[in-house]
Write a structure and sequence with these properties.
This protein has a single domain, classed as Nucleoside diphosphate kinase-like domain (Alpha-Beta Plaits), CATH 3.30.70.141. The chain contains 8 helices and 4 strands. The chain has a 4-stranded antiparallel sheet, sandwiched between helices.
């Protein structure tokens, strides 16, 4: 059964620099997901290390850390039915050359290192990543009834 979830999505520095934030937000909104928190920020070294903690020791770790701090990001929290899986479908494969046509990465990214957008890959990752970028009071509570509304509409 589908469940209402929250996920973390970030437009990475290359997406912000290229002016793709509105296009990316539009895709999630068109799917019916609800934006419940958003801010533009420069990622601190501490945030970057916390965000990519699972990649410590991998050959690409330093590149990830440097890249996420290369310019501002737009950090967001989205809510909806199976939003984690749905968001990953909308984003497409991490490698844009393997991403399905019509996905964010297929449409806007050219190389894996600069793939425009990040999204959580599990409930655990979503909770951890949301807590890195947002305080609980920064997340809009106006949609507390969203799960009930969705259940009514979709049975």
């Amino acid at each position: 059964m589908k469940q209402v979830e929250r996920t973390f999505i970030a437009v990475k520095p290359d997406g912000v620099e290229r002016g793709l934030v509105g296009n990316i937000i539009r895709r999630f909104e068109h799917k019916g997901f609800k934006l419940i928190a958003m801010k533009m920020l420069n990622v601190t070294p501490e945030m970057a290390k916390a965000h990519y903690a699972e990649h410590v020791g991998k050959p690409f770790y330093e590149r990830l850390i440097n890249y996420i701090q290369a310019g501002p990001i737009v950090a967001m929290v989205w809510e909806g039915l199976d939003v984690i899986k749905g968001a990953r479908v909308i984003m497409g494969s991490t490698n844009p050359n393997e991403a399905q046509v019509g996905t964010i990465r297929a449409d806007f990214a050219q190389v894996m290192e600069y793939n425009v957008v990040h999204g959580s890959d599990s409930l655990e990752s979503a909770e951890r990543e949301i807590s890195i970028y947002f305080k609980p009071e920064e997340i809009c509570d106006k949609y507390e009834n969203m799960s009930e509304i969705l259940k009514e509409r979709l049975g």
